Records
---
Amino acid sequence: MEQRGRGDVPPRPAAHRRRRADPAPVRDDAQIRRRGLRALLPGVPVRDLGRQVGPRIPRRGAVRDRGRGVSPALPASLVLVGAGKMGGAMLDGWLAAGLEPARVTVIDPGLPPEAAEAWAARGVRLDPAGAGEPDAVVLAVKPQGLDAAAGAVAPLAGPGTLVVSVLAGKTIADLKGRLPRARAVVRAMPNLPASIGRGATGAVASPEVSADQRRTADALLSANGLVEWVVDEGLIDAVTAVSGSGPAYVFLLAETLAEAGVAAGLPPETAARLARQTVAGAGELLGRSAAEAAELRRNVTSPGGTTAAALGVLMAGDGLAPLMREAVAAAQRRARELAG
Ligand SMILES: NC(=O)c1ccc[n+]([C@@H]2O[C@H](COP(=O)([O-])OP(=O)(O)OC[C@H]3O[C@@H](n4cnc5c(N)ncnc54)[C@H](OP(=O)(O)O)[C@@H]3O)[C@@H](O)[C@H]2O)c1
């Protein structure tokens, strides 16, 4: 298959209009790539898109946002209950956001010794004795582990403690039922990209959550990406159906695009690599651009061209939109059933 080298990126159409007296510009590869993208996506800021090369997933413990100021809203004392995939990723995000490790106590009896050692080496406390009644308790055990965890958490969560839960399907009433002294509860639904600081979290606060506590919850949740607050707890099922389950829909898109590529004659490995990078690259472009998804789509769709032909199928009356509505509604129904 023909591969285009960096030098094959077409020049910006307006380049010939440069005044003759201008000094010859010195351009690096990234600048050349950015120019090609500007030609493709007029009016869309494409800052540093030329640096989108290679894997961007930070290693655990990497500082994700150097230079980001420490949020004054981060709590003075925090207990994290459950430091598995989601709890561990959140803790990583808080430390990267500047939360002092000594302010955090982790309660997780199942923590593998190497993980416990690694957190302790970073200055995180692992002994709940002396944790007192912290400013915030974050619950990140499996939903079915809530009852078992509640025994240890209930004495810590007092009337002045902010409780933040990411437990799928556990309502604010469920949480208050297990933590009888707690008043201020935030129920949040993060998603998998939170593990690389690119999450999308929906959150709802109980009426007792003060303005300061809400800022604290926002600072804790936004250390791992975007946070959207909803006012009605019932909407958390919709959040679950859109962003909670959403990464799986995008992974399916990559799978089915690869399958379609094979059907079109590409070798399976080539189709898989092209589909994967297309989904990852388009997602990155969408994430870095100020433009709406529809505008980006229109910018790459020439009338009568190949993309328009494909979109004619995907955007037909029985195309992707009704299917996506049905899929999201099914996830929302299931979230309601699971929450009881
Ligand atoms: N992962 C995601 O993408 C995602 C997305 C949205 C929401 N969530 C929510 O996040 C929560 C955690 O999910 P996860 O994927 O991070 O699960 P996980 O990797 O299994 O982490 C849960 C951790 O809690 C520990 N734990 C169990 N019982 C405990 C107790 N009584 N006290 C303290 N710690 C205890 C577990 O230890 P053991 O392994 O020894 O049991 C484990 O380390 C779930 O409620 C889930 O609904 C996760």
---
Amino acid sequence: MCVSKGMCVTIHNVFDDKCQNIMISCLAANKKRLGDYMIEMKEVYKIYPNGVKAINGINVSIHPGEFVYVVGPSGAGKSTFIKMMYREEKPTKGKIFINNKDLGSIKEKEIPYVRREIGVVFQDFKLLPTLTVFENVAFALEVIGEQPSIMKKKVLDVLDLVQLKHKARQFPDQLSGGEQQRVSIARSIVNSPEVVIADEPTGNLDPDTSWEIMKTLEEINNRGTTVVMATHNKEIVNSMKKRVIAIEDGMIVRDEARGEYGIYD
Ligand SMILES: Nc1ncnc2c1ncn2[C@@H]1O[C@H](COP(=O)(O)OP(=O)(O)OP(=O)(O)O)[C@@H](O)[C@H]1O
Ligand SMILES: [Mg+2]
């Protein structure tokens, strides 16, 4: 019923009083949706098998559509925090929900399905060197058995978004670092995930190229995708004025709506 607020307004204009009830139910539905979290962690701890306590009691909620930077000194637990979101690492204790799904209760064989809802971007791109740009992005769709004609359209659409359609036939080693990272971003979003998680995506890139990557991630976020990004890039964090979660010794020590990087290296 309540497709959007805009639809309710249209109905309201046409049906006047009768719409009031519809509006009320729309607001209730929207409220419920606003209360949902894209990512939620409750009392999460991670102790690695060697005894390192990487995460020490984290509680956090991230709404759909947010852009969140994760900052903190080296070894603070940022990557561990992020890896637990896409089930690369399991928490030792506590609960993690992605899009209201309890990651602790999913079976091993269901992990690939959950991962499809989450796009991941790495510092070192992780492209397959023997595949072209097109094939690297298409690979994410091939594994889910997408039809070739739909696959082609989806791949070309995301390559267009990252402005690399003209490089579709190139191999990764024929691209610059920034272009390779844009291919990896295209790959991360080709399944239309609700969340993109990036661990230092600009870590290997020069300042200008880092900004290009940020603009691409911002564009993806503007289209409604939640973005969580761990970074050591002070300039970017301070300029973008997004939510900043600072982690130290496996704990959240700061969580600000329009935050700053802080005093880390
Ligand atoms: N697989 C692992 N096994 C054991 N200890 C680990 C493992 N991965 C990370 N650690 C340890 O957990 C702690 C947190 O590491 P993590 O990689 O999450 O930090 P980080 O904040 O991402 O650091 P950086 O900024 O250097 O990337 C560190 O003490 C690290 O040595
Ligand atoms: Mg890290």
